[in-house]
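tool_call: predict_structure(chain=1)
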Amino acid sequence: MVKGDSPGTGDPHRHLSTLDGWREFTSLAPGQPDLLTEAEYEALGSDARAAYDEERLDYHTRLGVAGTSVLRQVVTTGRRLTLLNRHAISARRGLILSGPAGTGKTTAITQLGKTHEATDQARHPGQERIPVIYATVPPAATPRMLAMEFARFLGLPVPARANMTGIIEAVCGVAIDTSASMVLVDEIHNMQLATRSGAEVSDTLKYLSERIPATFVYAGIDLERQGLFSGIRGSQIAGRFTLIPTLPFPLAGEWRGLAATLEDALRLRRHQAGTLPGLDRYLHQRTSGMIGSLSHLIRGAAIEAIQSGTEQITKKLLDTIDIDHAAQQESGPGTAAARRTAARR
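tool_result:
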């Protein structure tokens, strides 16, 4: 769907929890570097060649977002909910993404936020608005910690002795005054409803959702198994939120399409078209169908191809690229080391 749309630092989510970082994320849309022929590349001077390679390295660290079926569902559902909530006075509907780590939850909700921000700007050109708030639930969160996350995003100065009521009133006041209409809350699994502090964080989120006339979108790891929908509080959440599960991709047509999309985005001078789709089974075995692991593997291989001068991704090169421990373990114990040993012979 979108290629290379993350903050210029190369870390897609480093600054999203501040308003300046979020605005950088939503406004940044860098183009692809030109793909030079061998002759054009050789004709460059050493400084120009180094600059061109550095541009491509930076580009591949930010290799963009593929338009998966889940991402499209999240954007479509989120957009529909914001319209349904536009004139709602209470009991506004929300959206929850839940699934294993590495299945694209943060990517999906931030792309939803980016789409909503663009739509809001088109409807209200030239106005100083904050249509989207993005916050994460800190580990072992307390209500005050959560309120501070919202205040930090909005850039509100919070005195050390400020009480909870004052912080929340300031957050709600600014959110309403700046027409916030979507609130993204990530890492929601850090809110443990079985604990007193977790229950209080849940109550704080519910209060914020009642005070701020916005569509709330949550994302977290395996939320059903963590009891998010259990008990009285869980029943209230279940009754107001649409759940979209994010899962590993099966070895099917969409997986092959993801490999093709990532390959089309590459800027490697000698890469052979069709290589990655042709390795769809191997890529699925290496990554267990996790979109995050697939992106890591392809981006890592592209960077290695530029730095080594091979300028192409092959199965032999992919064998040498380490990815996250979870995917490595799913591939089979010891296989990563074995692949590297075999590839170096």
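agent: Residues 1-13, 336-345 have pLDDT under 50 and may be disordered. Proceeding to next step.
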